[in-house]
Design a protein that fits this description.
Layout (H helix, E strand, L loop, with lengths): L7 E2 L1 H13 L14 H4 L7 H7 L19 E12 L2 E3 L3 H22 L7 E3 L5 E4 L5 E2 L1 H15 L3 E7 L4 E2 L8 E7 L3 E6 L15 H13 L23 E4 L5 E5 L10 E4 L14 H4 L11
Parallel strand pairs: 1-9, 2-4, 2-5, 2-7, 6-8, 7-10
Antiparallel strand pairs: 2-3, 9-10, 11-12, 11-13
C-alpha cells in the first residue's frame, strides 16, 4: 500500500506525512528526507514497503468526514517571496509579479472574511511588507522542510496572529509539490499556519483566467483560513468544488467587489476583475465533484453563514 501524491491540492498528502512523522518516526523521520515525503510515501523503496503498508492499514489514520466548526484563522496574511540561489543564478518572482499578487489579495481577502465569518466577518488584514525566504539548494529543488524552517525563522520576529503565504517562481521545484505532476500547492502548520503556491509561467493579471496563480491561491488560502492547524481529521473544504483545474467553480467579482455570478472560467462575465474559487455551503461535507450551483454563491453582506 502507498499514497500516490494526488494532482491538484497536496494538503492531505502533507497532513498524512506529518501525522506519520509523529506516530511512526522510524518510517518517516524528522527532519524530512531530502527527496521529500513522496520518496517514502509512494512506496517505491522496497526497504520501507512493509512498514508503510502497516502504517496505512485500515483504521490507522483519522478519517475526515466533515470540517468541524473549529475557530477560523484571524490575523495578518503575509506574502513571502522565495528567493533561490542556484548554480544558474538567483530565481524569484519579480517585484511586478509580486505586486499583482499582493493587489489580488487586497481585493480577495475582505470577501473571504465575509464568506467564512459567522456572526461577523473574520478579522483579516494583508501585511504591506513582503519578507523574503532565501534558499540555497544544491539544485533548483527544495522541500517543505525548508519552508517549515523558514516559518520558524520568520515567525520569531513577526509576532502573533500571522499566517505566511510562500510564493515560488516557475523555475524552482518543491519536492513535495511538483507542478509537473499537476500539483497546485498546499497549506500546513508550523509555528504559524502557512501555504505554499508555485506560480505558473506567463504574464500575471488580477483577472487571471489562465489560472497562473489566483485559482490556487484562493483555494489554499480558503483552506488555511478554515483549518489553520492543518488537522488530518479535517476536510479540505475547497476540494469538492475543484475536481480538476479546468472545471473548478469560480465566484466572479467586479473591480469594486460586486458579485457577478459563478461558474467555470469559460463563463466569466466581461466585467470580471478577479475571482475566488468556489467552495461548498456550510456545513462542509466530504462530497466529491459538486455542481457549480453547489459551490457558487454571493458572499453574505452581514458576514453570517451563507
Amino acid at each position: 500500500m502507498a499514497i500516490p501524491a494526488p494532482e491538484g491540492c497536496q494538503t492531505r498528502f502533507l497532513k498524512v506525512a506529518r501525522y506519520l512523522q509523529r506516530t511512526d518516526p522510524d518510517l518517516l523521520p524528522s527532519p524530512e528526507p531530502e527527496g521529500g515525503f513522496r520518496s517514502i510515501l509512494e512506496g517505491s523503496d522496497p526497504s520501507t514497503r512493509y512498514q508503510l503498508r502497516a502504517a496505512l492499514a485500515p483504521g490507522k489514520l483519522p478519517v475526515a468526514l466533515a470540517l468541524s466548526e473549529n475557530p477560523r484563522f484571524e490575523g495578518s496574511l503575509t506574502l513571502i517571496r522565495i528567493r533561490c540561489h542556484t548554480r544558474r543564478g538567483e530565481l524569484s518572482l519579480s517585484p511586478a509579479e509580486l505586486g499583482v499578487i499582493h493587489s489580488y489579495l487586497r481585493s480577495a481577502v475582505p470577501l473571504l472574511a465575509h464568506y467564512l465569518g459567522d456572526a461577523r466577518p473574520l478579522r483579516l488584514t494583508v501585511f504591506d511588507s513582503l519578507p523574503e525566504l532565501e534558499l540555497r539548494p544544491t539544485s533548483n529543488r527544495f522541500s517543505d522542510a525548508n519552508l517549515l524552517e523558514g516559518c520558524r525563522r520568520l515567525s520569531a520576529s513577526a509576532g502573533a496572529g500571522r499566517a505566511f503565504l510562500f510564493l515560488a517562481p516557475p523555475s524552482v521545484v518543491n519536492a513535495d509539490c511538483d507542478p509537473a505532476a499537476g500539483s497546485t500547492g498546499y497549506h500546513a502548520a508550523g509555528p504559524v499556519p502557512y501555504a505554499y503556491l508555485p506560480v505558473a509561467p506567463g504574464e500575471l493579471s488580477l483577472r487571471d483566467l489562465p489560472d497562473r496563480f489566483a485559482l490556487a491561491l484562493s483555494h489554499h488560502l480558503t483552506e488555511l483560513l478554515c483549518d489553520p492547524g492543518a488537522d488530518l481529521a479535517q476536510l479540505e473544504c475547497c476540494d469538492p468544488c475543484a475536481p480538476n483545474l479546468r472545471d473548478a467553480s469560480r465566484n466572479f467579482f467586479s473591480a469594486a467587489g460586486e458579485y457577478l455570478g459563478s461558474g467555470p472560467a469559460r463563463s466569466a462575465p466581461q466585467a470580471t476583475a478577479f475571482f475566488l474559487q468556489g467552495f461548498p455551503r456550510r456545513p462542509f461535507l466530504a462530497t466529491a465533484g459538486l455542481a457549480h450551483t453547489d459551490c457558487g454563491y454571493a458572499p453574505p453582506l452581514a458576514g453570517g453563514p451563507p
